[in-house]
Design a protein that fits this description.
By secondary structure, this protein is α/β, with parallel strands linked by helices. The chain is built from four helices and five strands, in the order ββαβαβαβα. It has one domain: 2-Layer Sandwich (Transcription Regulator spoIIAA). It has a five-stranded mixed beta sheet.
Length: about 120
């Protein structure tokens, strides 16, 4: 079975942010791992999540599906408040290939993409 290394750290901005540092491939073989970690984090009280994609080599449709599930899970019942982008889930440092996949799939329309950890944390 493929591995996706997932290390979760806490950062403090205006709100506490759970930072998921991902390393490997986000695909059918690994998406379930991320989904389980995200579910556990939300059940433990995480409300704001930053996905560090700097070491993610590729994202398939299964990976995109789990990103969408995380978006839905964090949004919960709250409306989008008129803002097109999620205030709860944001992305950090996607590689050019991953950024292209996110753009083609339209994910950059509802997820902010940051290139700097400090700026990303302060955006929450």
């Amino acid at each position: 079975m493929e591995e996706l290394d997932i290390i979760i750290s806490q950062e403090q901005g205006r709100v506490p942010v759970a930072v998921f540092h991902l390393k490997g491939r986000l695909n059918l073989g690994t998406a379930e791992q991320l989904q389980a970690k995200a579910q556990s984090a939300v059940e433990s009280g995480a409300r704001y999540v930053l996905l560090d994609l700097g070491d993610v080599l590729s994202v398939t449709s299964a990976g995109l599906r789990v990103l969408h599930q995380m978006y839905q899970m964090l949004r919960g019942d709250s409306p989008a408040e008129g803002a097109p982008r999620s205030p709860y889930l944001k992305l950090l440092n996607p590689t050019p290939d991953v950024r292209r996949v996110l753009h083609i799939a339209g994910f950059d329309m509802f997820l902010e993409v940051h290139d700097n950890l400090k700026d990303a944390i302060m955006s929450f």
